[in-house]
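STRUCTURE:
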């Protein structure tokens, strides 16, 4: 049976995933601006976000949610976390019963501290929900470089059914039943990527970056496990894999924000000149709140939140991380670990 797919959100990643899925299934991409939808539909390019990449000739685009979602057997959500709930509410008006919803979004809702799959469950109860996440820089995948990703759903048979839909010659898709872990890995690695960028911006060394990535993995694992994620998920593609890609890649928007902060620029200036989203900026204070709620320490996330809020300079933040009291190198398997 042919599956019809709606991808909601025509930014860099939503467009890339729609392009990939289109090779296997009829796909409609929803853009919130009519002009953007028309341009993609007409020219098979997304001039705003991915001007250099031709898109699949069969990919349709629309700004009508009814047209995109009304006939869909699978809905894929690719809008940033700050617009996720309101967009999902529009989706829910047209969603047919039992249609699965997969989130591509790597962020946390600021007001509620919810993961995106929890937002889906609130707005559209009863629909199977999952996430697609991993080290997946959109432009690299569109350029044909090999990558791997994870589709995480509680129902493994449903995740297995989606593997060929999301897969491509250059994209290998694994399954995982740990939705919490996969989602928390994706959201929290953005915060650590800002810290890694800050290290680059202040002229720190590769040793520093390795320390940030490794200790960042320890603290994101600590929180993720305390919230119910499986420890091994954080050692996989949705955790360590995505953390490495985002912390080292010049393409990462979150790492870029950190680098500019490290050079002494204000967050307002850096964000104002970006035309794409850096989820870690909004996720950092949420991570700090969640860490407090769950009684775990996240010193790097706390430093990132504090530099973003202008409470500390990048140099002060790094000095205070180094000055913390001595302790053993305990990894995140124990939620109370430090
Ligand atoms: N880019 C990547 O490589 C990857 C990104 N992701 C994740 O995917 C999600 C989307 O990122 P990405 O596609 O890169 O983002 P972009 O910044 O490239 O695009 C953002 C998209 O979201 C739309 N949008 C912005 N604000 C709202 C809103 N309030 N309501 C509805 N739509 C809105 C934009 O529309 P408009 O153009 O009209 O403003 C645009 O289509 C993020 O959570 C990101 O972390 C995950 C894996 C890889
Ligand atoms: O999630 C990503 C790669 O897996 C994209 O990271 P950035 O949002 O930092 O560009």
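SEQUENCE:
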């Amino acid at each position: 049976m042919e599956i019809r797919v709606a991808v909601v959100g025509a930014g860099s990643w939503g467009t890339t995933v729609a392009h990939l899925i289109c090779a296997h299934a009829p796909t409609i991409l929803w853009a919130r601006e009519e002009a953007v939808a028309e341009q993609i539909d007409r020219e098979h390019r997304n001039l705003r976000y991915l001007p250099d990449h031709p898109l699949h000739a069969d990919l349709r685009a629309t700004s009508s949610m009814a047209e995109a979602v009304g006939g869909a057997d699978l809905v894929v959500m690719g809008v940033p976390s700050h617009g996720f709930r309101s967009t999902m509410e529009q989706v829910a008006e047209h969603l047919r019963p039992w249609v699965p919803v997969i989130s591509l979004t790597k962020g946390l809702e600021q007001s509620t501290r919810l993961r995106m799959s929890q937002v889906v469950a609130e707005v559209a109860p009863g629909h199977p929900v999952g996430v697609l996440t991993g080290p997946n820089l959109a432009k690299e995948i569109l350029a044909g470089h090999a990558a791997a990703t994870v589709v995480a759903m509680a129902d493994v048979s449903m995740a297995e059914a989606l593997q060929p839909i999301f897969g491509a010659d250059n994209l290998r898709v694994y399954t995982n039943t740990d939705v919490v872990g996969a989602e928390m890995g994706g959201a929290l690695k953005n915060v650590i990527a800002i810290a890694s960028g800050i290290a680059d911006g202040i002229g720190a060394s590769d040793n520093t970056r390795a320390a940030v990535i490794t200790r960042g993995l320890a603290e994101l694992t600590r929180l993720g496990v305390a919230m119910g994620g499986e420890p091994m998920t954080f050692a996989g593609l949705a955790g360590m894999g995505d953390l490495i890609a985002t912390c080292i890649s010049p393409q990462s928007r979150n790492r870029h924000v950190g680098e500019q902060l490290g050079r002494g620029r204000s967050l307002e200036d850096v964000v104002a000149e970006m035309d794409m989203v850096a989820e870690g900026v909004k996720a950092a204070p949420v991570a700090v709140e969640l860490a407090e709620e769950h009684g775990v320490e996240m010193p790097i996330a706390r430093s990132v939140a504090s530099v973003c809020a202008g409470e500390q300079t990048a140099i002060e933040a790094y000095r205070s991380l180094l000055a913390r009291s001595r302790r053993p190198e305990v990894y995140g398997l124990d939620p109370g670990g430090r």
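REMARK: The pocket of 1,3-dihydroxyacetonephosphate (ligand 2) is lined by residues 106, 135-137, 190, 193, 242, 245-246, 252-254 (CB under 6 Å).
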